[in-house]
Specification:
The chain has 365 residues and is an all-alpha fold. It has a domain at 3-222: Hypothetical protein, domain 2 (Endonuclease III, domain 1, Orthogonal Bundle), CATH 1.10.340.30. It has 17 helices and no strands. Helix 2 (32-42) packs across helix 3 (47-60), helix 2 crosses helix 9 and helix 10 (151-159) packs across helix 13. The radius of gyration is 56 Å and the shape is elongated. The termini are far apart. Mean pLDDT is 77; it is low at 237-243, 264-286 and 322-361.
Length: 365
């Protein structure tokens, strides 16, 4: 889209929305920190809801430090009127944490005196600060020219074909600040925010759709679509079919039913057979392995014993053959020559002694 066509459509948005909404201006007596917390509450929610949540936070908690320390769940309980209390409570808590960690105080009034570029850079340094929060502070607290856009506003810009997907991903509308003057910036942003939040809350409302169609007649093709009841009924009720198709469907259904009936009966015998089959080969394999191991062990033991016995017998025979002739020569020759006369002499001596004993008579002492 060209810049002139986009500028014309943006101007048409302002002129159409003025007929259906009233511009809402923020409170003038709020500090920079209060504008920051209010912007965290206002994102994707209505002005009335954000005002109620902001007032309740100030009533329940004694100071911003207590809000920073509290849990997200407890803080969301005080912001139940918002569109997404958990997300809004997370933004408030994290933003206050970043502010305190950066300067260890809650005084942000010095940003009004600084240059607008430095001030916006400081706000962008807070990790939890969204583009909507930064633009809201620049517009309402720092007296700058910036149009705050949240997710609901960017979705509305896509439906009106003012931005494409790439530009929406970058969270920017080219030429928006040039098409809307600074004097009309606050009014235009408040009108756009009211319309975008209302359309997000009820995207199928005919009133809101008619407003958008008055801005762009081609937006009808880009409206969010929902499934109609007629289509759902058609999908549930089968359309009229030919005889062959119905027969094929009935056959396939009957086959599936038979398969389901037979399915639980088949696995039982399969499991039993599998168990038996798995048991018998295990036993046979164990037996065969035992037999083979026994045979091999017996063979090896027999071989080793035979070798050992053969070696022992060979050694013994060698020793005997070496010792045998020496024994015969040494033992036999002296036995015959020495022992025979010794025995005779000993025998004779015994006989002589015995004879003497008989002949001699003991004398009395």
């Amino acid at each position: 889209m060209s810049a002139t066509a986009r500028a014309k459509k943006i101007a048409k948005i302002h002129s159409v929305l003025k007929k259906h909404y009233q511009p809402i201006r923020p409170a003038a007596n709020r500090s920079v920190l209060e504008h920051l917390v209010f912007a965290c509450c206002l994102e994707d929610s209505r002005y009335e809801q954000a005002n109620d949540a902001f007032a309740r936070i100030q009533e329940v908690y004694t100071g911003w430090n207590e809000v920073r320390v509290t849990t997200v769940k407890e803080l969301a309980e005080q912001m139940t009127d918002l569109t997404d209390p958990i997300e809004a409570a997370t933004r408030v808590k994290k933003t206050l944490y970043n502010v305190f960690e950066s300067q260890y105080s809650w005084d942000m009034e010095y940003l009004r005196k600084e240059n607008l570029g430095k001030a916006t850079q400081k706000l962008n340094s807070y990790k939890s600060a969204t583009p909507f929060v930064v633009s809201y502070l620049v517009q309402n607290a720092l007296n700058g020219h910036s149009i705050p856009l949240d997710k609901s506003a960017m979705d509305l810009m896509l439906i009106l074909d003012i931005v494409n997907q790439k530009e929406a991903a970058k969270w920017s509308v080219p030429g928006l600040e040039r098409a809307v003057s600074k004097n009309l910036g606050v009014d235009f942003s408040s009108l756009l925010h009211q319309m975008s939040v209302d359309f997000r809350s009820s995207p199928f409302s005919t009133n809101y759709r008619n407003i958008l169609l008055s801005i762009d007649s081609g937006a009808k093709d880009r409206f969010p679509k929902r499934q109609s009841k007629k289509k759902v009924v058609k999908t549930q009720e089968s359309p009229p079919e030919t005889k062959s198709a119905s027969k094929a469907a009935s056959k396939s259904a009957s086959k599936a039913a038979d398969a389901k009936k037979k399915a639980p009966a088949k696995p039982e015998p399969k499991k039993k057979v599998a168990k038996k089959a798995s048991g018998t080969p295990a036993k046979t394999s164990a037996k065969t392995s035992a037999k083979t191991s026994a045979k091999t062990s017996a063979k090896t033991s027999a071989k080793t014993s035979a070798k050992k016995s053969a070696k022992k017998s060979a050694k013994k025979s060698a020793k005997k053959s070496a010792k045998a002739p020496a024994k015969k020569v040494v033992k036999k020759s002296p036995k015959k020559s020495v022992k025979t006369p010794a025995k005779k002499s000993v025998a004779k001596g015994v006989k002589k002694k015995s004879a003497n004993k008989k002949l001699s008579k003991k004398k009395p002492r």
